[in-house]
């Protein structure tokens, strides 16, 4: 909980920004809108956040923190196998994306920024105010935190025998993670095209979860992990 005047004001501005970004969208929201809704002067809002890009990066960091808390809660559950943890994670992320749509969009937007950031000529295509944001710099340090927890879930599953022993934890988690994100992104097109193709959201989700589990379990009985590494397919 914020306990200083600065922390309280920062939280107020963030909360208002999240509300407006959710209702109006990022492009249609101005710093003046945020300041007016927060009941502060526009000049004061710039004291806490240099510009709208800086504010959006702060919101994005908050989104990653919220997602990380979901990963952490699942990972620390006692008596759950690694496979059960990943199954819980898939369901929890789908709920997160639906109930916190703006957070999810911010996270996916940051992933797109990182795709440019890691390319030799890509950084020139990123808004310079984003690169200057202190919150962007913080995101560079913490955006893999969820992945680290996910990798531990896979490793736990390999050790407890619920996940195929020949799988490599890092490759496995990021493949699973891409599948979960892809599922969430495609729920809209599938819902719209359900009259044209033989799939419905009501049966796709359990089918997706089962396929994910079968892929991770494999068709062979779990045994002591070998040095051999292979792909998921």
TrEMBL record:
It holds the Pfam family TetR_N. Residues 30-49 bind DNA. InterPro entries: Homeodomain-like_sf, HTH-type_TetR-like_transc_reg, HTH_TetR, Tet_transcr_reg_TetR-rel_C_sf. GO terms for molecular function: DNA-binding transcription factor activity; transcription cis-regulatory region binding. PROSITE patterns: HTH_TETR_2. Residues 7-67 form the HTH tetR-type domain. This is HTH-type transcriptional repressor KstR2. The gene is kstR2.
């Amino acid at each position: 909980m914020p306990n200083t005047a600065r922390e309280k004001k920062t939280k107020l501005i963030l909360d208002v920004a999240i509300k407006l970004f959710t209702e109006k969208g990022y492009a249609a929201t101005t710093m003046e809108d945020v300041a007016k809704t927060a009941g502060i002067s526009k000049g004061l809002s710039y004291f806490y956040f240099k510009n709208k890009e800086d504010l959006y990066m702060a919101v994005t960091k908050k989104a990653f923190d919220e997602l990380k808390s979901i990963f952490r809660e699942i990972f620390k559950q006692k008596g759950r196998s690694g496979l059960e943890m990943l199954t819980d994670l898939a369901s929890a992320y789908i709920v997160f994306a639906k109930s916190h749509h703006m957070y999810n969009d911010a996270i996916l937007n940051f992933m797109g920024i990182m795709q440019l950031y890691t390319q030799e000529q890509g950084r020139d295509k990123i808004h310079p105010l984003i690169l200057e944001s202190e919150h962007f710099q913080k995101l560079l340090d913490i955006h893999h935190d969820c992945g680290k927890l996910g990798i531990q879930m896979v490793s736990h599953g390999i050790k407890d025998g619920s996940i195929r022993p020949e799988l490599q934890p890092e490759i496995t988690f990021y493949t699973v993670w891409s599948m979960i994100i892809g599922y969430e992104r495609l729920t809209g097109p599938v819902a719209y095209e359900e009259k044209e193709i033989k799939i419905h959201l009501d049966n796709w989700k359990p089918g997706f979860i089962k396929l994910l589990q079968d892929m991770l379990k494999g068709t062979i009985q779990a045994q002591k992990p070998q040095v051999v590494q292979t792909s998921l397919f």
